[in-house]
Structure formats: C-alpha cells, structure tokens
Amino acid sequence: MQPLPDRLTHLSFPEQLTLWSVRLWAEGCRKGQSVHILLNDAYRLAKCEEAYLHLENFLTLMVSANCRAIDVRCLHCDGISADEWRILQSIALAQHQNAYAPAPLLSYFLEPTATRVSLPIIKQWADTLKATKLFLPLREEALAIARQNYNPDQDNISHFDMPQQNKELLH
After folding, report:
1. Domain-by-domain residue ranges, the chain?
2. What is the predicted pLDDT for the residue at 169?
3. For residue 71, what are the β-bridge partners?
4. Which of 73, 97, 155, 157 gives 107 a disulfide partner, CB atoms 3.0 to 4.6 angstroms apart?
C-alpha cells in the first residue's frame, strides 16, 4: 500500500486540479479577489468546463452554509488538511458509489440542510469530471482521516464544538 500523499504535487492530476481549484477559490474569497477567469481557463484547458460551474456552486454553498471554520490551505502550503481530504474523497465517493455516499464527510462542516443540498452538486461535479476521464481515486487512508470523529449513530451532524460566528476558511 502506498503512503498517503501529503503535498498537492504528489496527488493524481484530477486531485491536483480539484484541490488547486478549491485552494485558489478560497484564497480569492479570503482576499476579496475574483479568480473566475483563471479557474474558467484551467477547466477549459482540462476539457471539463462544466465542472467549474459545479465547483463554484459547491464552494459558494460551503462558505455560506458551513457550521464551523473549514481548513482550506493556501496554494503553497505543505500538507493536505482533513477538510481538503473530505472534499476530495466526497467527489471520489460520488464517482465510484452513489450521490448519497459523500453525505457523512460533508456533514463535518456543512449544516444539515446544506449537506442535503450539496449532494446533487457534488454528484454533478463528480460526473462532469468522470465524463472527461478525470477520476479521483478512493483512498482508504484519506477516508480514515476524513472520517475521524465521525459517529454514524449520532443524529447531530455537526461534530465539532466551534462557535457559530467563526464561519471562515482557515489558512
């Protein structure tokens, strides 16, 4: 079994494109800058322009309906956060399993209603990438990290004691 990649550059291309996009979008959000043209060009060059729309929809939902601060790192940071693995593995689960498979991972940082609303968006994002042969691998080690602190018997979807007003993207 290969060790889990710990750098953006060690990921497969579909994972790199996805994580780079999430980080760039979050950095633009933190700085109040538009990254639309750059992301649109990246997805056009990757021949999956439609996937950018689903990325935009999901990240907008993620920022507006999160239940805690989300650890999305800057473009040049080492390491991949548990929240970043949750996003990557949510797309992989939607590609390899079904539209509902990502719900437990997304519920770590989304409100319950937002989790439900996000599922078709993640599925569309995953299917659009899949249609252009951009498959994100299911990584058991990443799923283990992403599922830390998850209690499937617990009805409460928020698993962290974070103050409600601290709804930001962390660096």
Report:
1. 11-150
2. 57
3. 170
4. 157
Q: What one-character-per-residue DSSP string does 86-122 give?
A: HHHHHHHHHHHS-TTTTHHHHTTTB-HHHHHHHHHHH
Residues of the chain short of pLDDT 70, as ranges, are: 1, 149-171
**What pTM value is reported for the model?**
0.86
Distance from chain centroid for Cα 69: 14
Give the residue carrying structure tokens 């058991």: 140
Residue 153 dihedral angles phi and psi, to the nearest 5°: -90, -10
pLDDT at 149 (0 to 100): 62
Q: Assign 93 to helix, strand or coil.
A: helix
Q: Cα(75)–Cα(16) distance, rounded to whole angstroms?
A: 11
β-bridge mates for residue 66, sequence order: 110
